[in-house]
Amino acid sequence: MKIVALFFPKASIGTYLVAMAVAIALPIFAFVTLLLLQLEDNQRSTLRRETAQDALALSRIIDRQLQDMATTLRLLSSSPELENGNLAAFHERTETALRDNTLFVIAVDRTGQQLLNTRRAFGTPLGKTANIPSLEAAMASGRIEASDVFRGRTSGDWVYNVTLPRADDPVAALIITQDAKDLGKLVTTEGLAPGWSAAVIDQSGHVVAATGPANLEPGTSFDPRILPAFTASRGVFQDETILPHMLLGYARIPGWSWKTVIWGPIAQASILSTWRFLIVGGVALVLVAVLGAYAVARQVRTTIRDIAEMANRMGEGHIVSPVETSVIEANQVAIALSNASFDRSQTEDRLRFVMHELVHRTKNLLTLAQAMMRQLAKQADSVETFQAAVADRLEGLVRSIELLTSEQWGGVSLRRVVDIHLQAFPQSRDQIDISGEDFVLKPDAVQNLGLALHELATNSVKYGALSVPQGRVRFEWRGVREEDKPDALLRFTWEESGGPPVAEPTRSGFGTTVIKAHAASAFRGTVQVDFRPEGLLWVLTAQRATLERD
User: Fold this and answer.
1) What residues contact 65, with CB distance under 8 A and at least 6 apart?
2) How far is CA 179 from CA 56, 212, 258, 517, in A?
3) Starting from the edge strand earliest in sequence, which strands make up the sheet with 197-201, in order?
4) Is residue 81 within 8 Å of residue 93, measured between CB atoms?
């Protein structure tokens, strides 16, 4: 009691209101300070992550270009004209096919002597290819390779080659060449912040193509102090000595010797001005709060005395009417005291209902999460694999819970459930065809169907039709007649096509459990899973009553 009396001595309400204003302001200042520091750190982390992702996106664009060139070389290598040694016909056909492109084809023998070059008319005297080292490297490796950027003898511009070695004579290798400036059209800073640049770098550290304010020309050596830091497949580089107030992201192009980089200034708000505003504004706010607290204290003192008198009379057993004061809240307290005995029972019933719903929903979610983690733990071969699997499944569950919460657990339309789960795979959304009559799902059906749909889409993106650009998925639902009851059953169909060949897995994992056993049990129906070579087929037939909200 002595310690309490030391910190809370007897004093007027005005004194306590002023002290309360100060006590509230100080923690707020401390909290805002922490928020500012955390915000600055989060901005840095977000910028680093987005920079690495932007570099990776650029690498995928360049990879598609190189892969297209490699595919063209493979097709040309098997042409009948080339097999029959008719180079003139091969030159005419190739020139016609690539007339609308910026690509040119060169055929060389084992010494590098050009036999034809679609930049020139057939029969024009030609010398050896300008980049003999890249030709020799491709011949030695026996696979398609991209060269470093170099100055072409025929074009006179900076170019690069993609070389396909052949075992036949006299054409020992086919080369597709393109001007570096034409590749530069694919290198864009669209979507990046102002002041950012992007570039493609070859194996020797020279710029193949670039764009942005850095204005790097093809053939320019990239900063040799930065290149040794590109050790991972992708990442970021930051050094105030080399790149003051700037950030650089890089990514290796898979299967090739090139890399993509983006870099630019780190744009941050002035923290100093924010701190200055916080201090000056905080002091002014405290002064205003102290004066306001004192003025309010005088008014509240009278109001409290009136309420206290009312409470005393109620304690003595009198029936009292609410007192009328100048403070609206005090009037509400007076009314509440008068009606407390009548409202208490209703409030307790409402609390019991809320607690019951909370316990029910929590038990369901915890049971589902526990079963999910138990299944995944049996299959995971490392902590990292387990964490990734749990995070992926919980993400799908969270999407369903967010939907239900927004509707106060009253059910969600089927079409909205499908759309919100497929938003997790924006790169594949255009490959999915959805059809079916919309209706409102029950809360439990939202979670269970969402889990199955998320699992099907995740597996398809990893291994099935959505893992390749030409893959397609058809997802539809329709009513099925049962005896004399039309639409008593619902049939959901997930059908994949155009993807990699499918083979039935050797062991059943958590994903298979979700789309088969869990789906069948949750909807009291049947599930058909067919691992057809042309694509997965999943069919769920369930009672409509287990899905549709009344």
Assistant:
1) 183, 186
2) 23, 19, 16, 57
3) 207-211, 197-201, 259-265, 246-252, 234-237
4) yes
What stretch of H or E contains 225? Answer: none
**Amino acid code (one letter) for 257:** S
Tokens read off for 298: 């005088």
Bridge-based pairing state of the strands 440-441 and 472-482: unpaired
Q: How far apart are CA 58 and CA 60, in angstroms?
A: 5
CA distance 94 to 118: 8
Residue found by looking up tokens 């910026």 in the block:
102
Q: Please list the pLDDT of the chain residue by residue as tens digits (550 residues).
A: 455 455 556 566 667 677 777 777 777 767 777 877 787 778 788 888 999 999 999 999 999 999 999 999 999 998 998 888 899 999 999 988 888 788 999 999 999 999 999 999 998 999 999 899 999 999 999 999 999 999 988 888 999 999 999 987 789 999 999 999 999 999 988 888 889 999 999 999 999 999 999 889 999 999 999 999 999 999 999 998 999 989 999 999 998 999 999 999 986 544 556 656 667 776 777 677 777 776 767 767 777 777 777 767 666 666 667 777 766 777 777 777 666 534 544 554 555 544 554 455 555 555 555 555 555 555 555 656 555 555 555 655 566 566 566 555 567 888 888 887 877 777 777 888 888 888 888 877 777 888 788 888 888 888 888 889 899 999 998 888 766 566 678 889 999 998 898 888 776 665 666 677 677 777 788 888 888 888 889 888 888 888 887 7
How far apart are alpha carbons 335 and 318 in whole angstroms?
Answer: 15
CA separation (Å) from 480 to 102, 438, 491, 541?
A: 55, 15, 7, 9
Report the relative pairing of strands 259-265 and 197-201 from DSSP bridges.
antiparallel
Does a cis peptide bond (omega within 30 degrees of 0) precede residue 170? yes
Q: Give the DSSP letter of residue 267.
A: -
Q: In whole angstroms, give the CA distance from residue 414 to residue 445.
A: 9
Radius of gyration of the chain (CA): 36
